[in-house]
Each structure stands twice: as structure tokens, then as C-alpha cells.
Amino acid sequence: MIFHEWSLIFFTVLAQTAVGGYLLVSSRALAMGHSVEKINSYKVPMFVLWAIMGIGFIFSTTHLGSPLRAFNAFNQLGTAWLSNEVFFGAAFFAVGGLQWLLSVLKKGGANLQKALMVVAMVLGAIFMYSMVKVYMIDTVPTWFNIYTPISFVMTIVVAGLLLSQFVFVSAKDSRFSIDRNIAILAIVAIALSLLATIGKANLIGDIQSSVVKASELVDGLGSYLLIQVALLMLGLLFWIVPLVNKSSVSSITLSVALILVLASELVGRGLFYSLHMTSGL
Amino acid sequence: MTNIIEESGVLNITRRGFIKASSAVVSTAALASGISLPFRSNPVAAAVSDQVDEKVVWSACTVNCGSRCPLRMHVQNGEIKYVETDNIGNDEYGDHQIRACLRGRSMRRRVYNPDRLKYPMKRVGNRGEGKFKRITWEEAYDEVTGTMQRLIKDYGNDSIYLNYGTGTLGGTVTKSWPPKATLIARLMNLCGGYLNHYGDYSTAQISAGLNYTYGGWAYNNSFSDLENTKLNIQFGNNPAETRMSGGGLIHHYIVSKNRSNAKTIIIDPRYTDTAGGREDQWIPIRPSTDAALVAGLAHVMITEDLVDQAFLDKYCVGYDQKTLPASAPKNADYKSYILGQGDDGIEKTPNWASKITGIPVDTIIKLGREMGTNRPCAIHQGWGLQRSANGELACRAIAMLSMLTGSVGVSGGSTGARESDINIPFVRFPQVDNPIQTSISMFLWTDAIHRHHEMTDKTDGVRGAERLQNPIKMIWNYAGNCLINQHSDINRTREILQDDKACEMIVVIDNHMTSSAKYADIILPDLTTSEQDDWCMDGKAANMPYFIYAQKAIEPQFEAKSIYEMCSQLAKRMGVEQAFTEGRTQEQWIEHLYAETRKQDPSLPTFEKMKEIGIYKRKYDHHYIAYEAFRKDPDANPLNTQSGKIEIYSEQLAEIAKTWKLKEDEVIHPLPIYVDSFEGHKDPLTSKYPLQLTGFHFKARCHSTYGNVAELKAAARQEVWINPIDAKERGIEHGDMVSIYNDRGEVRIAAKVTPRILPRVVALGEGAWYAPDGQKVDHAGSINVLTTQRPSPLAKGNPQHSNLVQIKAVQKA
Amino acid sequence: MKQYGFYIDSSKCTGCKTCQLACKDYRDLGIKQNYRRVYEYEGGSFVQDGDTWLQKDVFSYYLSIACNHCSDPACVKVCPSGAMHKRDEDGFVVVDEDVCIGCQHCSNACPYGAPQFNKEAGHMTKCDGCYERVAEGKQPMCVESCPLRALEFGEIHILREKYGTNADVAPLPSSSLTLPNIVIKLNKNAKPTGDTTGFLANPKEV
Ligand code: SF4
Ligand code: SF4
Ligand code: SF4
């Protein structure tokens, strides 16, 4: 079984999805100079995004042995990446959530909301950066390598693209040409992430301490990798087949695609945690 | 490892700059929030420890590991909180601390074990089923004495047997072995006696075998004398696992060995912890073939003229024709045997020895030369190799090496027996003579229950009488687990004991619900050492002997009582109370015994002083040199043998060999020759059971004592050692669950796949608490499910390391 | 700043585990917690040659490891609550059990297996060098218990003067990672850090 760290698996994947989605939705709103009405019209699908983020945070606290002392997690802000991660995650959630609340309440003009968006995007980016750094520990050779940032960024990009696409489609704010470009982007990202998976599998084959071989940490490593890739491809299929058929994408097929992609990411993250080892005992 | 990290390429974003920026954000955030960080549950309280009412009491670990260790019990409010050991002084070698091993350090978990026997109990289910009801002490005493009186009347005192038990071997009042030294024996002897036993599960074959060589118990130089040797050879001797105390022999062994600069050679089928990088050479050998190796070495030394001929001529009988007794046939001497001029006509060349032992020829030749040119040699043997089907011959063979090299009786030398120690004389609990002379081998009590009528001196080694008159009808089992766990062939024992018409009464006196206690009719709960006063004696400690005044640390738990009180109460009912107690309480006896001891040796500290210092050590400036006086002047100081010399050829054994009735594959021989043994590597049974199973002493337990301490079980897991070659053939990987089986039974346990054991040999630590399921399969790794009750030829002892088994994989880890 | 440390003489250590159990008794630890752990590293093989067996470098040795109270402690670096901290007065790395949130990240990072999570209590636990005993001038319980005198304790600069500076041996990680305050005397059988010819024989006991 690779899911013993299930709370962290869900937290990281969901947070990356939400942040990725938010970054893309907000960039588009900013880049295209959306009006406040337009921004407000995202409120329902954006609820889904914030729900994903919220569930992620709930998962993160279930990981703690002493959840009542969760606030102590901020203590080492500035010196421990885990503190930074928690802090910027919370800040992102607060500022982005405030912006969403304003959109729901139809309060605050476009400028205020856009200003909050910018702040939330910056916080989200730092949040994501911290999350990578949390796992870049030089005593853990299976994490301390280029594939940790790559795979985290790939989750942000692929799941984020899909989630943002879902937001636009649900808000009836999509055009075939843009949808297609997004899908092409997604295909490229997925191709990259496949390459990364292969590269990582190779690296794992080389990592070994006196105590363990990384490749022997997970029973059936190969089949898990296959499942991960298969789920991702299936998700992609649900996403692009409508586009290939030139029919417009529906929020239903997108949700199915999202679920499949998330499942793939969860498997991948499960492997990530199961491959933990130190260079010593 | 580090290389891989470097090569893999790492994201290199400048971290410091980022942190600076973010910490600025943070401090403002923290300030703004007004929350005081960090959140604590209970800031200071945890740091302050409660020192109220703590006392430190000297107690001891009195089990049968060969060592004895002081335990300093830290008692708070009547409860032992933790255990320290001797930490007095600056620990200089020679006046060093007697440091307890991992077991002694876990004594608290034994005293407060959930398995503790709390009340007297009486069996209600079938014997061995483990169903009991609580009874009062009065009921228990009445039941025991009532049945005993009836059995004595119907069958005689020789139907009452004191079973082997060494759980409190280190005690004085509480001493559980030898039987005659126990309080039970004192009680029984005041009531007409009991059926005695000779020998012991530890040393049956060596005490019988070397008795004919050296006369009586065979001594060897103390380990402390290793510092004077030129060559250190340990035959299956493993103090790191059998003498674990840090005041005892492993400490002496390592310090003395390191002082000597002598080459160390370990001969053992296992790469033991005594080896573990502290040896210069490990020679793995097939179990039960030591005598063949010795013969090969002797061949090298004889043919290359490296033997100490003068020593052999002057001190030994039967090395060559010159010293062969008149009664012996021609060419019955040792040299002729080695050179192939004896009966068998086989020359014992290194090549011959190599095929039997599995040791390469050049290794044997080199070792023979090393021994022959580095005299005197320190040659010690452990007791594992003699605990086998041909053990009496094997242990005598090893002693040959000390003789051939003329090492006996000199510093730096040896006798080939196990190491000895200097002891402090101490007055023991006075014994009462046993009116019954008959004695059986401690190993044949199960036979004496169900086939006593066949048992004679010539067939079964009955001593003190020609034959057994009565079956065993009652067993006292005090502080012992040989009733089921430590006796061979558990399934056979089980069957014999299940018939409660045969042996009618079994009384178990112990601390815990052991496997043996489950076979009791009456259980009497005993105190642990922590709950009473006693003298703790006989620790094996080279040239720094000591004794401990173990004092009561806590009140008796539940309704448990001391063995002294139990026996006094029983004596009262048998009408011998006064003779038994001589009017003293246990505490008074303790004082009395010490007063008697001080009469002999007034230099000892006072009783009051002992109370305070707990342990008394005596540092000798010399080592124990076995048979030193004999070596200096053999005529003035003859040995206890028939000839007064070291007997390589024993006329007594020649006589026994002629008169005793033996099975076809059993050999008793006047010379220390090599013979194939039953369940050895050449037994035809190997076609079915191709692996030789040997036992060893395991750190998690002292035999079976401490076997129920969960922390020890987890820290040193019970596993069967198997070589990767054998494991691979069976599809077994490290940690897999395997089944070990032969015709006698089946054990399931995890495999330790390790190159530290010779291929075709497997090893299981003895003493795990038998845990059968409904199908008689043991799940604890109890070796005696697989051992045989067939006794060795001469000692009629336990060949518990001669077992053939097969192993198969059961479940992947 | 004072810095205490351990000297571990692997040439003497017989793997008896007295240190492990003495600590367990004194600190009243359950079955799963081992502030000090004894690792068994071994390897080698046999080759058959007719009736005989040739042994090819069969070896074993033990390492008794607690927390090394590292000078660059991986555990402290990743701890978000500050519960895992290095003390100024004696250099011990200690987890403040009242502050720890139980995120277990320190145990991810420590390459010596020192921090161990106590699930029931919800926080990390770890060897604290018996700092209370040390403050009273006593030795840590484990050190004092060793029957083989394979453990010593003291200020690390003194131990290093006496015994040199080696802290590397398989299966330990490279000492450059965390700068552990230990000095190891190598067993004759010792293999270098990064060795893969042997294996950890007792993973379930540590
Ligand atoms: S088992 Fe033996 S060595 Fe260990 S503490 Fe007890 S007496 Fe000492
Ligand atoms: S007590 Fe000493 S010899 Fe025993 S395992 Fe610990 S360090 Fe090694
Ligand atoms: S050994 Fe591990 S827990 Fe101890 S200080 Fe070093 S990194 Fe931290």
C-alpha cells in the first residue's frame, strides 16, 4: 500500500490544484481586463476551487499528532520551510477567499478585487515554492532531486489548467479556440510530466543506501507507475475528445477528466511519500 | 549516496534572500495577531521530577546465565521505577563494576509482568490445558502434603522426584539446583527422601566425558589468564552470548585477549558475537564433527613432530604404546588411532578430517602447525558442542589439543575444558542426607514416569541401584521450565504428562505462568528476588569473584510467598517443622549463614556493612590455572582419575563400553575418537531432513527466564538462522515466516537469512516459551518441539544440538 | 558553547543491546520506542568446494546509535514549531514535547532514525542525552550500562582528542550531512559509508 501518508497526499495535490487553477483564472481575468461583473460571474465554479483548497487544509491538520497545537506550526516562520508553507498557504487562502467573498457579495470594485487577486497570486506562488522546499531535504535522496520540483510544478500546471478550464466552462466563459489552445498546452504539459516520470523512475533505480534500495521501497512500483500514467491519459482523453470532435466541452466531461487527473496525481504523490528514505538508517 | 545527490542536479534558488524577506512578513504577522507563541500544554511541570520517597535497594539477578549481577532498584512509593546496576567506583579493570546485561536491566518488567502467578491454584481442566481455580494457601498445603503422604505410603519415597530447575541458581536460600541444595530437598529428606538426579541440561556430556580424562569436574584456566597466552582458540565458546554480564566473563575475555596480542581463532558453525570482528580467524565447522577436526590437527602435529612428547610421556596415559595401560589391547593408543594403525585402519589425515568437518584441508594444516608452534595454547570449549549425540567423545577430543601442545597446568595454557574461575568460599544452607541412594540422569525423568521397570544401570545409567523400583508418581518443579519447555521433544513429554494416573501429582513453584506451570496440578506462587532477602552467589568472574547481598526492594506482590515460608508450612504439616527451620526465619538464616562464613574468613565485611555496600568483590593478583599443582609435581598432586594422570585412554571407559547395553549406532570408547552420531550430517535421515539444527543461547532470555518480557522479545526477535544458500533453494527471504519440522513436531518462526551461519546448518535460540496452536504447531520458536529424548550413550544426557530438520517457506514478510 | 557527544567503540560492541534496554527501562519506553538502537550490519558469502565450504569475507558488526546531537541537525532545520531545538548550554538536541505538533517532519529528515513518533501522545520523542543526569554530573544511562565499555560520553572536543574524529561507517550516512557529535572506533569488519555489499540484518529491532 502506498497511501499511508494519505492526509499529506491529499493536502499537497489539492492545494497544488487549487493554486494552479487560481493562478490561471486570475491571470486570465487580469490579462483580459475582466469587468467586475465578469469576475463576479465566476463565483459559483470558484466555490469549487476554494472548496478543494479548504478540504486540502483539513487534510493537512489530520496529519498532525497534536492538531490542537496547530498554530505552533507558524513558530519557525522564516527559518523552517514547513512554517513558511503553512503561513503562505493560509495567507493565500485568506486573501483569495476574501476576493471570492467580495465577488459573491458583489462588494468592492474591479480594482480592489484585482488588487487582491494579485496579492493572492503572489502568496499562492510563494506557497507553492515553500511546498517544494519542504521536501528538498538533503538527507532524503529520493526527494532531494530535480524531480520533486518538476512533479510538483506539473501537478500545478496540469491540474490547474484543467480546473481553470472547468471554471470558465462552468461560468459559460469559454471559446472553442481558447479551449483548444489550453488543451494543446495540457498535452504538452502531460508529455513533459511523462518524461519526468520516466526520468524519475530511472533515478530511483540508482538510489541506494547501505540499508535500502529505493527501487525496493514500494512493492509493485512499476504497476503503480502504470496506473498513474493510465489515469492521466484517460483524463486527457475525456478532456480533448470533445475538442477533437469539435463539439464544445461540457463541465460534466471536464469534471470527469478532473477526477481522473486528480486520481493520477494522488497515486503519483502516494509513490512520492512511499519512496521516502534517508541516506542513512 | 552523496554523489548521487550531487549528480542529480538540484534546484538552486537562493534561499537566504527569500527567508529574510519572508521573516519580515512573519514577525509583523505574529505581532499583529497578538497570539503568544509557542502554544504549550504544560510548560514547566514536566521538567520537575518528583523525588519524594525514593530509595535505592541492592538486589540481584539470580538466574542461570552463569553470571550474577547486582541490580540497584530505584523504588518510589513501594514501586520499582527503574533499575540501575553496579555503578560504584571508577570501573578500573580488576576492580571493575559488575554491570548487568539487557535482561537484568529489564527486571522490573519481569517483576510486574502480567504473567505473574498471583495466588495458589489448583488444576481444573485436563493437565496442560492451563485451566486452574484459585485456592487458599491452607488448601494448597493440605492438598500437597495429603497426596504426598499417600504416594509415599503406596510407592515409597523414591517415587517423588525433584525436577531440574535453575531459575534461581544464583540464590542461597532460594537456590533451585542442584536438587540436594534446595529447600525442597531439605524438606523431603526430613520426610524419607526423594529420587535424585545427576547431570544437568547444560553440561551432561562434558561432565561425564571429561570426568574420565581429568577426574571429576574438568577445570580450565580462567579467562583472565588469556593475557599470557600465545594462541587463543575458542571451540564453540561464545561468552558474548552466554556470559553477558559486564562484570563477568565477556568483559574478562575481551580485556585479557586484547592484552595478549595472541591470535584468536573461533571455531563455530555460527559467526558469533564473540567473533564479530574481534577474531583473527573464524573457522565454520559442521556441528558434531569437532572430534574429526581434532584428529586431523593431531595428525598434522604428530607427523610434523610438533607434539610435546615429554609432557605426554610424563603426565598422560595412553598417548602412545609407552603409556598404554596393561589391560589395553595393542595399538589401542591415541597415536596409533591417528596414524591409522588402530582398529579402524584409517589414517586421520587433514584430508579425511576436511571431508567430515567441511573445513578446507589447508586451513586444518595451517591450524595444526600454528598450535604446534605457539605453545602453550589457550584452548577453551563452550558447552554447545558437547550437548550432542556424540558429545562425550567430542569434548574429550578437544582436551587432546591441550595435551598434545603440553598446555595443561601452566599460565597461558589450558586443559581444553571450559574456562574456570576463582570463587569466594561461602557457607551454604546446611543439607540433610537423602536416605534414598537411587539417582537417574536428569534427562530420563519422562522415561521414569512411564517405563521405570525397564530402567537399569547398564541400560539407562541408573546410579545408586541396579534398577528403578518405582515409577515417578510426584514431581516437584521449583523455579524450572524443564517440565515442558526446556526438556526435549515437547510433544512426547506432553503425551506422557497428560496421563494424570501415571504421574499423579505435579507441584509447580514459580513466578510466572510458564509453559511448565500450565502442566501443574498445584501452583504455588513464588516471590521474585526483588521481594525477598538472599545471598547471590557463584557468578563466574575469572579472578575477581564477588557476592551480592540482594535485599528486599518491594513488598511481596499479590499472595506470593517465599520458598522458605512455603517449605516451612509444608514441613509443619509433615511434622518436621522444627528440624526444617531450626527455629530461624529466612532473615535469620541469612544472617546466620553470613556469620558462619565470617567465622571462616573474618576479613569479610560485617553484615551491617554488606547491607550498605550490597556487593563484595575480591581482586586476586593471580589467575586461575587449572591443575597447576599437578603439573608442578604429579606424584605429590595426582589427579582424581584411576591412574592419577590425565587419561587419554580410560580403562574405566573400556570397561563400561564392554558392559553397557548400547544401540547399534552408539559408541562409548576408551579413546577420544570421532564417530558419526545419530542425527548428524551423515545420518541417512538427512535425505528427508537435510538440515542440522543447533541451538544457541539468545540474548533476549536466560534459557527461558525473561522469555515473557515483551520489550526483550521485540528488541531481540526470535528467528531461525539460515544461510542464503539454503534460503534461496527454498524461496525464503530475510524475515519470511518459515516452518521448521521433523517427525517430532513443527515450529513456525521468522527466518534470519544470514551468511553468519554455515550452509546446511540452521540455528534457533533455545528457551522461547512454547506456544502451540490447536494443531500442535508451535508459534514461539521453541526448539524443543524438534529435539529428541533419545539420550547420549555415556552421560544419558540431552543431545539437544543434534537435530535434523527440514525448512519450508510459509508466508512472505 | 558546550557540546557533548558519544564515543562508540564498534570494535568492542557485541550487540548485546543492554544500552538499548537500559534506556528503555529508565525512560519507561514502550516496545516501539528505542532512543538508543543497536544496528546489526553484516554480509559475505559461502562457496561450495567439494565436501567443504569456503567462506568469503563473512562479517558482522554492531553500531549503537542514539541521537548524535548534531551540530547541523537536519531535524531542527525542518521543524516548524521549534519544538526540536538545540540547547545552548550543552549542545543537546531536544524535542520540547509540549510544543511539538506531531507533524513528524523531523523524522523524515534525520538520517539516523533518532526522532520517533509516539502516536498515543501525539508528539515526537527522542534521546535528550539524559541532560538532567548530565547536569547533575552523571553519565547518560545507556553509557553507564554498557557491559563491554563500548560507549563513552563527554565533551566532544575531549572525545575527539582522545579518539580522533571519525563518524563515518556503513550503514550510517555521510557525517557531512548533519555533523553528528559522535566518534566511532571502527570494528575490524567495518565497511565505509555508502557500502552496499552488506545489509542491515535487524530492521525490525531498531
Ligand atoms: S541475565 Fe545474567 S548477565 Fe544478565 S543481568 Fe542477569 S545475571 Fe547478569
Ligand atoms: S551495551 Fe555496549 S556492547 Fe551492548 S549493544 Fe550497547 S554499545 Fe554494544
Ligand atoms: S541525529 Fe537526527 S535527531 Fe539527532 S540531532 Fe542529528 S538529525 Fe537531529
How far is the first residue's CA from the last residue's CA of chain C?
A: 32 Å
Secondary-structure-derived class of chain A: mainly alpha
CATH superfamily of chain A: Formate dehydrogenase/DMSO reductase domain
* Largest interface (C-beta under 8 Å): B-C, 70 and 67 residues
Give the ordered list of helices and strands of chain C: EHEEHEEHEEHHEHEE
The share of residues in extended strands of chain A comes to under 5%
State the helicity of chain A in percent bands.
over 70%
Mean pLDDT across all amino acids of chain A: 94
Q: SS-based structural class of chain C?
A: alpha+beta
Oligomer: heterotrimer
Main sheet of chain C, how many strands, which sense, barrel?
Answer: 3 strands, mixed
Give the helix proportion of chain C (percent range): 10-25%
- Poorly predicted regions of chain C are none
Figure out the total of helices of chain C: 6
Distance between the termini of chain A: 22 Å
List the keywords.
heterotrimer, A: 281 residues, mainly alpha, 9 helices, 0% strand, B: alpha/beta, Barwin-like endoglucanases, six-stranded mixed beta sheet, six-stranded mixed beta barrel, binds iron/sulfur cluster
What would you note in describing this structure?
The complex is a heterotrimer of chains A (281), B (813) and C (206). With 281 residues, chain A is an all-alpha fold. Helices cover 73% and strands 0% of the residues of chain A. Chain A contains nine helices and no strands. Chain A has helices at residues 6-31, 36-40, 43-62, 81-105, 110-135, 147-170, 176-206, 221-244, 251-274. Chain B is of the alpha/beta class and 813 residues long. Helices cover 28% and strands 15% of the residues of chain B. Chain B is built from 25 helices and 27 strands. In chain B, helix 6 crosses helix 14 (391-404). Chain C has helices at residues 18-26, 74-78, 105-109, 131-135, 141-145, 156-163, and strands spanning 4-9, 37-49, 52-65, 84-86, 93-95, 116-118, 123-125, 151-155, 182-185, 198-200. At the B-C interface, strand 3, helix 8, helix 12 and helix 24 of B face helix 1, strand 2, strand 3 and helix 5 of C. One iron/sulfur cluster binds at residues 13-19, 38, 62, 64, 145-148, 150-151 of chain C.
In a nutshell, what does this entry contain?
The complex is a heterotrimer of chains A (281), B (813) and C (206). By secondary structure, chain B is α/β, with parallel strands linked by helices.
